[in-house]
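Example: KTSC domain-containing protein.
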Amino acid sequence: MTIERKPIRRGGIRSAGYDRGSRILEIEFDTGKVIQHSGVGDEIARRFLSSGSPVSYYRDNIEDEFTSKRVS
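Written out as structure tokens, the predicted fold is:
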């Protein structure tokens, strides 16, 4: 599955994208690491993607709350 990511370029996050059908949030970090979080609801994804401080929102609401796997 390919998730279209949009540039974020803030706080160590290069890009991110969300697939509503599978409820997967994919985040690419400045290091090149790509993580997919599963079970993420629309509202959480929307708030993350529109956040003025996405890395803080990620750490507070996503990182330890949703199952993750490294894909790259």
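Helices lie at 42-49, 54-61.
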